[in-house]
Amino acid sequence: MNSDIDNPEGLELSQIDIHELLPQQEPFVMIDRLVYCDKTVTLAETEIRNDDIFVENGHLSASGLIENIAQTCAARIGYYNYIHKKGIQIGFIGAIRNMDILQLPPVGEILTTRVEVKEEVFGMTLAEATVSWRNQVYVTTEMKIAVKE
């Protein structure tokens, strides 16, 4: 998949190193790749590894799921800035609402995180997010992200 965001260079998402889109650095990076990005929907994938900072007892923790969602939001902004040759922006979680953790995903699974932007105003983004693997949904939530200009 690619993107329908105005992309003057015609870059494929698979050509972009995720580290060029995120302010986080290892070992804190919680997504492996951006697989789709348009003006409202972003999809990212990550494999849960045993040595991930947020893995506890063989499962990704709730904190890891939250960070994964926040970084998917950050990758969306990072991708837009990357193709428009702007720097990486720092974002902050402003609020988390209606979080429903159905199950913690085990090590070895490749998660798909889907973030859909519902509203953007004054540097704040309200998004709905789902983290899943195949047909198994692990978490749904709403998240507000504030971006530092």
From TrEMBL:
Record InterPro entries: ApeP-like_dehydratase (IPR016776), HotDog_dom_sf (IPR029069)
Domain of life: Bacteria
Organism: Segatella hominis
UniProt protein name: Pseudouridylate synthase
Gene3D superfamilies in the cross-refs: Hotdog Thioesterase (3.10.129.10)
One Pfam assignment: ApeP-like
